[in-house]
Amino acid sequence: MCCEDLNAERSQRNTVLNMGFLADVKGFLELIYEIGSPKFFWITFTRIIFPYFWRTLWHGKSIEYRALDFVKKTAKEGNPGSVLDALEEYHLNYEVMMAVMPEKRRKIEEVARKAAPKVCLEMGCFVGVSAMAVARHIPPGGRLITTEIDTLTAKAARELFSFAGLDQVITVVNERAEDVIKVLRSEYSVDKLDLVVLDHRKWSYLPDLKALEKGGFLHKGTVIIADDCFWPCVPGYLEYVENDPRYQTERFYSVSFPGVFDIPDAIAISTYKGGDNN
Fold first, then answer.
1. What's the Cα-to-Cα distance from 99 to each of 63, 141, 181, 220, 248, rounded to whole Å?
2. Radius of gyration of the chain from its Cα atoms, rounded to whole angstroms
3. Can you name the CATH fold of 68-272?
4. Checking CA distances to 156, which of 31, 38, 164, 170 falls within 20 to 30 Å?
5. Is the pTM of this model over 0.85?
6. So what EC number does this one have (predicted)?
7. Mean pLDDT to the nearest integer, 35-43
8. What are the backbone dihedrals phi and psi of residue 125, each rounded to the nearest 5 degrees, phi first?
9. What's the burial of 9, exposed, middle or buried (CB within 10 Å: 0-12/13-18/19+)?
10. Is the pLDDT of residue 119 over 50?
11. What are the sequence ranges of the domains in the chain?
């Protein structure tokens, strides 16, 4: 086998072992450092890291595809609520996933139901819990664009959306959020956004929100949902949306990794009241 083939095989293997589950490893390590207790380190290794790698090597599939298999076996096809319930069950009873779970999901659904958004952008898809929670409340003719930088994770998300019957509503873009923002108008015909979900690289929340402002994508009434706002790697975001007079912001207190760590956390739900780019 030539050197190029060996490098390609090694790259493919590393891609499988570093799927979306570990895509935000920088932020997760900062969270571990912030908490810093021996119990936290032990649970992280025994409940998350070791099972993840062992199952990936044993099954030859990443956690996204193991969750997809579970959904196809237990959920009702064409029923987004059933698919979301199955993902929640998988997370709580089988494997810990870096996905929005149960209290947060219900809050996001509540916000989406009230907003009834027609054009939405999510940054950070993973297995698509937030995307489906929003999309099932989008009126006919509406759409949601979601970004996912990992190719295999994006593929798994598309399969989940298809199984849930939402593939005509949700478009998965396999690119970085900041790159998608630059072409929202030219390639996706987006003028204004009704709802935005931030759940990607935590340190990108504020820069990407400002990019949406600069691009004129926000209108009076646009709702911005930002997950994991208590994580130590979300610099400046809460201060910005809570102190800028253009935003009305509320916090929804919850926990990250429910049933495992129960780390105090919050979702920031901001409504854009209009301003420079209204």
1. 11, 27, 23, 29, 26
2. 19
3. Rossmann fold (3.40.50)
4. 31
5. no
6. 2.1.1.6
7. 63
8. -90, -50
9. exposed
10. yes
11. 68-272
